[in-house]
Amino acid sequence: MTRFTFYGGAGEIGGNKILLEDKDARVYLDFGQSFNFGSDYFYDFLQPRSVNGLECLFEFDLVPRVQRLYNPGSLRFTNIAYEKPDVDAVFISHHHSDHVGHLGFLDEDIPLYMGHATQKIIETYGDLYRDLVDIGVHNNVGTFRSGDKIELKHMLFRPVHVEHSTPGAYGYVIEAADDQNIVFTGDFRRHGPKQEYTDEFIREAAKAHPCCMLCEGTRMTPDPETQYSESQVYEKVKGIIQDSKGLVFANFAMINIDRFNSFYKAAEECGRTFVIDTKMAYILDSLREKIPDLPDPRTDENLKIYFRLAKSCRFCDKDYYVYERKYLPNMVTYKELNNAQKEYVLLTNFNKLMELVYIQPRNADYIYSSSEHFLEGEDNEDMRTVLYNWLSHFKIKLHKTHCSGHAGKADLEYAIKKIKPDVLIPIHTQNPEEFRKIHENVIVPDKWGSIEI
To answer: CB of 128 within 8 A of CB of 287?
Structure first.
C-alpha cells in the first residue's frame, strides 16, 4: 500500500510538499513554499524572526509540525526536540520557490535529488540574491539527467525532463512495491520550443501503466483559456520591434531562457542590439555549461551589457561588483541608448524604472512578457499604478505578450488520456474538480490529508 500526505500543493497552486510512503520508504516530492505563504498573518514589516526558525510558522500551522524532519537550528525555539531524520530523500522537480522554498528547514543529512541544471540555477541565483535564495546546507545532493535511474530501498525513481518556463524541469516515473508504478508530473507544458521533452515524459509514463498519477493543474480552469505558444510570443515581439520608432523595453523573468531566446532572436532579425544587465549576463555565463547554444555575453556581437551609473559616475571598474567587471569590455550606458534609441532593445523590470530618467526614451515601446498576475492581480495594484505612471510620463506604449509555463486544459487532457493512470490525483491547482470531466477515477486531496492507493 502506498500513502501520500499533502502538506502542500493540494487545493492551491504551488507549495508542493508531498510525502510518499511505500513500505518502509519515506520520500518527499518537492518541498516548496506556497505563493500566499503567511499572508494571513504577516504583512510588510510584520514578519517572523528568521533566527527563530520554525517558531512562528508552527504557531500558525504554516509548516507541518512533523518530527524527525527538520534541522536543529529550525527547531531551536519550538517544543519539538531534535531527532535524527527518518526521511530517505527529497526529490525536486525544478528550482522554482514553490517547489524548493522550504528546503532550508530540512535536516542536513536528508539526501536531496535534483536535475543537474536545477542545481546550477540554484547556485547561480544564490550568488546573485543571497538574501532571497537560500536552500540551506545539505550534506548529500545527488544530481541527475533525464533517463537516469535512482535506487532507494525497494523503489526506483526515473526522472524524465519536461518542458516548463525554466530549464531543468523534470517529472518522475516511480517504481514502488508490488509492481505498482507512480507518475509525478512536476510542472509542465507542451507549447514551447522543447515540447518533445514533455512528449517523451508522456510516452515513458504511459509505458509504466501507472496505478496513480499526481498531475499538476495550474491552468485547469472551468472555462477554456487561449493557449499562446512561445512561437506566437516571438512573432508578436518581432512585430512590435519592427514597428517601433524608438527604444524597446523588454520585461520578462530572467531565468525564462525560452523567452530570452525569443527576444534575442527578434532583436537580431530586426537589426537591433539586445541589451541585458549584468545579472542576466552572469546567468547566461553560468548556464552556458548546461545549455551550450546560449550566446556568450562577453563576446556576442548581438548583445551589449548595460551598466548603471554608480559611485564615481565615471563607469570605473571599482564602481561594480567583482562578477560584473568581466563584462565591462562589452559595456553600454544610458548615453549610447539615449543617442541611438532605435538601435536597441533593453531588458528591464519594475526595479529598474529609474534608468528611464537617464535614458530619456522617445517614442518608446514597453513589452511586458511575464506572469499575467502582475498586471491583473489585485495585490499588485500599487506597483501597477506606479508602472503606469512612469510609462505615461515618458509617453511609452505598453504591450503585453506572454505564454504560460503550464499546460492548458487541452494539453492536460491529452497527457492524462495518453498516460491512462488507474487513479488521478490533481495537485498544484485551484480547480481539482475539473479533472473529473476527463478521468473516471479522480481522488481530490485535502491539504494535510492523506490518500492511500
So the answer is: no
Task: Give the pLDDT score at 224.
Answer: 67
pLDDT at residue 337, rounded to an integer: 97
- The whole-angstrom separation of Cα 250 and Cα 1 is 51
CA distance 303 to 381: 34
Q: Average pLDDT by consecutive 10-residue portion of the chain (453 residues)?
A: 95 95 97 90 87 92 95 94 97 96 96 96 90 87 97 97 96 95 97 97 98 96 81 97 98 95 98 98 94 94 95 89 95 97 96 96 97 70 92 97 94 97 97 96 96 94
The pLDDT value recorded for residue 25 is: 97
Task: Spell out where 187-270 has E strands.
Answer: 212-216, 248-251
> Where does 276-421 have alpha helices with state H?
278-287, 322-325, 334-339, 355-359, 372-376, 381-393, 409-419
Rounded CA gap, 315 and 369, in Å? 30
Q: Residues with Cβ < 8 Å from 98, sequence gap 6 or more?
A: 13, 14, 15, 16, 32, 33, 34, 35
pTM over 0.85: yes
- C-beta of residue 13 within 8 angstroms of C-beta of residue 35: yes
Planar angle of CA 219, 221, 226, nearest 5 degrees: 70
Domains, the chain:
2-223+405-452 (3.60.15.10), 230-400 (3.40.50.10710)
Grid cell 554608480 is found at: 310
Cell of 363: 517614442
Helix residue spans in 311-354 (DSSP H): 322-325, 334-339
Q: Which residue(s) pair with 451 in the sheet? A: 4
**3-class SS of residue 341:** helix
